[in-house]
Write a structure and sequence with these properties.
Largest sheet: 6 strands, mixed
CATH architecture of the largest domain: 2-Layer Sandwich
Number of strands: 20
Helix content: 40-55%
CATH topology of the largest domain: Alpha-Beta Plaits
Strand content: 5-15%
CATH superfamily of the largest domain: Reverse transcriptase/Diguanylate cyclase domain
Length: 796
Amino acid sequence: MTDSKKSMTIAIAWCLAWGKGRQPQFPLPLLQEMREALLNETEIPGEVAGIVAEVRRLEAIPEDYFPETIAQLQDKYPDLWHQDTKIGLVYGGATKIKQYVFESAKIQDVRGASALLDQINLIDLPAFFGLEPTVCDIYPDARQEARNWCQQVRQWLDKCLLENESEPKLSEVLIPELIIYSTGGNILAFCPAAFVDDLANAIEKRYTERTLTANSCAVGEKFRLLELRFGLLNDDNKLWLDWYLRQDVHTNPIVESYFGSSRDKQTKKKKNVEQLTQAFQERKNFNELAGKLAGLFQQRRNGNDGLGVNRSSRCYPPMYETHPYLIRDENEYRCAVIREDKLPGKPYLSESLRCKRIMGDKAKKEQESQWCRDTELDLDWEPGFVESWVSKFKQFLQDSGLWQDYYLGIPENRVIEAKRLEEIGKASRSEQIFPKKKLLKYSITSSNGFVGYISADVNNMGGYIQKQIKTPQEYQEFSQDVLQVMESSVYTALAKHLNPRKLENLTEPESINRNGRIVHPFEILAIGGDDVLLIVPADKALEIAQTIGSEFEKQLAEVRNGVYALPKTHDDKSVHRYQGENIKPSRCKLSMSVGVLITDYKTPIYYAERLYEQLLKSAKKQAKDLKDSYNYYGGTVDILTMKSVTMISSKVKEFREEGLTKKIRGSELRRYAAPYTLYELSGLIEAVKALKVSDFPRSQLYQIRSLLVQGKRTTILNYRYFRTRLKEREQRNILQKYFEEPWCQAKTNEGNIAPWMFREKVYETIWQDLVDLYPFSDETDMASTNKKSVTTEANS
């Protein structure tokens, strides 16, 4: 029996054995004995053996069994049908997360808000169930700190909800196996039926008490035992497969909105009986219960109390006074409660902003930041246990054997965490800091004060869950697999493309005294659910984004004997506009779309957030379109290099359509080619590096870019004239090998239409991106060799 299957067996048996009321129908020690017996696969106590047998009969139902009528189900499993003890299911988490995280303009406050939500999602809520976090081995004291904090959380849980001393404490009701998933963002968990509302209220209260201003929502419902396998069972037992197959039913628009269209998506013909049966079966499983909770979640989130819900209303959000003569804090414009004289600038802080600032320092392991302890303000709030992403990254380096490759001989205790965006954008890769500088992965250049925002999201996750995930066990395994692979992909990309960097030329008052320090040149703001958000130096942003996407597909396809892998016969090579070498088809059913924004570190975070979210949506739309048109399952990346804040005053899509698109003689000319597939992005990176290695004059790059606005034929003619005038043969060969041949091949002959490429009446070009990315490329070539090898290969 696998761990996840054993966990779900214990969870369901625990809820059934507890019974219908708030007092357990069996003594609590007996329930614990049952749990231990199931964990260790020993003899089950006789009093609860019948309950465990029922759970195992439920799990033993064949996967391909599905009754045509409700009567068949009643006749085949009468004991399960008549089990009247219901099982509680609770779903909840934070809402309007971006509004809470990005309402501040400073990175330390954004970091603190993100860390606070991560603490609740990954530590506090699992602690409700007695589950303690896995702590990195490189910090031995952290394990005890985490244990103490989880104990405080459980004490808080019992204290805030205990209304009757004769009733069991909620921490005694909940056990670790009840959690289906809690991997960041939301939690889904079983619960004894009588405590559904208590647990939902505790989840909402925890978010409010810890953050003060973040929105949250939690809902719960009670379900019959057989509903865990066959979805919602109607009270009158009439609405089943035989009902759905009726002509007047499955063609009804309301029914179609629930079970899917009655016509085949590809052929547009009416579905046959087999297809209709499959559509019904795909809906009637545990997924339907999760879908009902999602609907209740949306209702409560919108302020609707719902019918028959005996809980406090959520339609009245907390209000903050707006007296005109009160002093406001520096970021959120709420009433300030204190002025912190020990912080740079002596800022005024509101209570919620103070919590974020404390968590931001705690997440960076700033032991010297004692301002929060020395404050005169006496608030009953402490940061608790926080594990920084850098700590997890160090653990990954140690476990994967990449420690030496990353540090290159620098003592680990000399490298600190970057605190501000200026430190990421201006950190220099000075070779003098590396005892083993010969092993450097790159040449010594700088990001010139620019940073790269990388926002990633898993494609078609909802569709995959709807069609492939049908049981609580599969939900649990899927969430764990995605989170582990996502974290590993990010850490792999950072370790592959980055090394510690030295701080130089810092000018901001908060950072100027850190000149000369060595830092980890990245900031991870979030990894959880299906989202990733990090900030890296601009010169490595594209490579890190490309590696995250490719590693996610590669690693996920290898999980659990290839459960997420595509058939080896799958081929989607024709989708790529870049026709270089070693084109490989997609190998994973899930992939990631990524939005990459390269901009000055001074760009306001809230403004950058709006842009990279638009890029991410554009990349996801491209992934969906390519999947529908070419059956492409791989990842996509949309990029934008913004040299000034005033460059875009509207949406990215409008900027491209109005400023970079021109229609001539029935053809559409686009002076951009984004979004890219992951393979296309690797070709773009190669082209930029090849130009940089050959010392291609930047003025000539700009000159070619200026020709793009003159139309297709004029541009091609001027490009060829310009190309023949290049004095260096090496530069002509670089253009041919890395730009013209792989990107600009003609469709009807062996020539090329450089600088354009053609697809479906649309002419596009990557030249705009080549020019924009040129300053941020280092001088290493595509095969990690030196400049001479690239030149020789291009001239051959």
